[in-house]
Specification:
Elements: E1 23-27, H1 32-43, E2 47-52, H2 55-67, E3 72-76, H3 82-95, E4 101-104, H4 119-147, E5 151-156, H5 160-163, H6 169-189, E6 194-201, H7 211-218, H8 235-245, E7 257-260, H9 278-281
Parallel strand pairs: 1-2, 1-4, 2-3, 4-5, 5-6, 6-7
Helix pairs in contact: 1-2, 1-8, 3-4, 4-6
């Protein structure tokens, strides 16, 4: 039987107007989970700001937000570059107001056996996922400290921040840093009214996944049967979780990482299955150096 399906798309987990007049900034908000989260904030009355390096992603995010009738601004920004971030915050503040909510969703990720990983691949994932999240969060906090105003940050994480992630050593290391940032900065910045939490998705298949990750998923014939919930996640469920964590109803929750995956990351076997190398799982031949 598994866990029940969620309410339909368009249902709200919070009262209508919860974010009226507020500005919500979502990095990577034009695709996948980021777009779903931005849409749920828009349904609750927020002005939405979307950041991305890719014009087609910005266009897709704008179309999704306009479809629910919310104000939106899309800004090209490289979150690896602190100057680009400053310019983006200035533009958002001029258009709407200083964001009261920051969703750090932008990340880089692709599966690769570690022995095949180039130095540039390692640096790129760390730079976007960890450094970019830090630069975005620091600028958010500094502006709220100057204005003496409260704010809420939600960092999108990954469960392999706890467990390690074979095939994703670069992303797992970066996401471990993102999780630690939640725990560290929530204590440092709580006295200034800045709340920081993490949000970890399980398997939420969507059309914006990269081709290499989709190809790995395609090797699983029946994804629902591989989950304790007997189903995969629905994107709107991530949106509801994010809006709750950033809402006044969760204002005493800080330094917490919420996992939304139907308990999949807690799954264990009573007996060990045969070991299959990451190379074999990815359909790669022997390492040849």
């Amino acid at each position: 039987m598994g866990l029940p399906e969620p309410p339909p798309l368009g249902a709200s987990a919070l009262p209508s107007g919860t974010f009226d007049g507020q500005t919500v900034l979502v990095t990577g908000g034009g695709t996948g989970i980021g777009k779903a989260i931005a849409t749920e904030f828009a349904r609750l009355g927020a002005n939405i700001a979307i950041l991305s390096r890719k014009p087609d992603h910005l266009d897709a995010g704008v179309a999704a937000i306009e479809a629910v009738g919310a104000p939106v601004v899309a800004i090209g920004c490289d979150i690896r570059d602190p100057d680009s971030i400053v310019a983006a915050y200035d533009a958002i503040t001029e258009k709407f107001a200083l964001p009261t909510v920051l969703i750090n969703n932008a990340a880089a990720n692709f599966p690769v056996p570690t022995e095949d990983m180039s130095p540039n691949a390692w640096r790129t994932v760390i730079d976007i996922t960890l450094n970019g999240t830090f630069f975005m969060t620091r600028e958010f906090a500094r502006r709220h400290m100057r204005e003496q105003s409260p704010g809420s940050v939600v960092n999108i994480g990954a469960s392999y921040a706890w467990t390690g992630g074979p095939g994703f050593a670069h992303s797992a290391a970066a996401k471990a840093g993102v999780k630690n940032m939640v725990e560290t900065l929530s204590v440092e910045w709580g006295p200034y009214g800045i709340q920081i939490n993490g949000l970890v998705p399980g398997l939420f298949p969507h059309e914006d996944m990269t081709a290499d990750i989709l190809s790995n998923l395609d090797r699983t014939n029946e994804k629902d049967a591989c989950q304790p919930a007997m189903r995969v996640g629905r994107l709107r469920e991530m949106g509801w979780a994010a809006t709750f964590l950033a809402s006044p109803y969760a204002s005493f929750i800080s330094g917490c990482t919420l996992v939304v995956d139907g308990a999949n990351w807690q799954r264990r076997f009573m007996t060990n299955a045969p070991v299959v190398t990451i190379r074999d799982q990815m359909g790669r031949g022997p390492f040849e150096g």
